[in-house]
Amino acid sequence: MKIIDTHCDALLKMQLAKRGKFIKSGTLDYKTSKHLDNNLTNLKAGQLMAQFFAIFIHPNVPASEKWQHALEQIDLFYTEVLEKNPEMKHIKSWKDFDALQENEIGAVLTLEGADAFGNDLSKLRHLYRLGVLSVGLTWNNANLCADGAEEPRGGGVTLLGKEVVKLNNENYVYTDVSHLTVKGFWDIMELAKYPIASHSNARTVCDHVRNLDDEQVKAMFANNGTLHVVFNPPFINYEKDNATIADLLKHIDHLCSLGGVKHIGFGSDFDGITSFVTDLSDAAHYQNLINELLKYYSEDQVKGFAYRNFLDNRPRL
Gene3D superfamilies given for it (predicted)? Predict the structure, then answer.
């Protein structure tokens, strides 16, 4: 069954490798590298229809270097993911999904945290031109646009952040709520035409700051947003280093009980996580999840979770 995955950190891992901070061998071969959970070989084995690639800049990177780090990751996306692998097709507009052929995999650029452009909105517009189709205002920290989920003061979206959401709306770009504070989430609900939770779970099932509570979940669904469950065990079983597919299904079951049957998707966080769901440790194992879901849900519902819900709810130009 085809899969759309709305979050991975392969570009960061590839950048770290190229900079000699991950492994000593330098540039990773995107097609086959065993160091990449979401390499092309694994995407094919898992029957991925599309993979979203996050641009992520760690808060420890000096402000003067953040834009360069973002450009490096984008360059790796173009040179190592797209140019060397003709079956990877760059999705630069939502209608491009409709042109994908059976043997092709869509590749979507996203931005995880506004640190990359600081307060320079011309840089954000440049990211749109390069193909970024989803923007999360922050990671777990605070920045000029918003407070992240782990920022102690728990602030919301700033005036600059509101300008970013406005630009996202104008450009049919998603605003990602996955790393926001509760206050920031509700600010986005008032502002964003195209909200998405690219990699979050249900807080009622696992009380982790990165998950969404029931009221947030229902607001996402009411605003035509999709919530993509994440495979990181601490977000599935609080403070545990492992989880089972059955544990992950508890989140899907709960989200469905809140009206999410047509709004649930997958956002693995592969290449950004260090512990894994049993039998779901990289993209090649995606069909294990599908097979388990088919035991409890209809084929039509599972197709919705796997790819159709995203396609049905994506922005329309």
Answer: Metal-dependent hydrolases (3.20.20.140)
How far is CA 145 from each of CA 33, 113, 118, 259, 310, rounded to the nearest angstrom?
35, 9, 8, 31, 26
Q: Is the dihedral of CA 27, 33, 36, 38 positive or negative?
A: positive
Pairing between strand 195-197 and 88-90? unpaired
- From start to end of the chain, where are the E strands? 3-5, 48-56, 88-90, 105-112, 132-136, 174-176, 195-197, 226-229, 264-266
Q: How many domains does the chain have?
A: 1
The token pair at 122 is: 């011309």
| pLDDT attached to residue 25 | 62
Tokens encoding 101: 């052929």
pTM: 0.97
CA nearest 66: which of 22, 5, 127?
Answer: 127
Domain CATH for 68: 3.20.20.140
Give the number of other Cβ atoms within 10 Å of residue 229's Cβ. Answer: 26
Dihedral sign (CA 193, 168, 164, 88): positive
CB of 240 closer than 8 Å to CB of 207 = no
Handedness of CA 22, 27, 30, 33 (dihedral sign): negative
Q: Which residues are CB-contacts of 204 (< 8 A; sequence separation ≥ 6)?
A: 213, 214, 254
- DSSP secondary structure letter of residue 94: G
DSSP state string for 172-226: T-EEE-TTB-HHHHHHHHHH-SSEEESS--BTTTS--TTSBPHHHHHHHHHTT-E
The series of mean pLDDT values per 10 residues for the chain, 317 residues long, is 98 94 79 97 98 96 97 98 98 97 97 97 98 98 96 97 98 98 98 98 96 98 97 90 95 98 98 96 98 98 98 93
Residue 159's closest CA among 197, 192, 195, 187?
A: 187
Domain containing 97 equals: 3-313
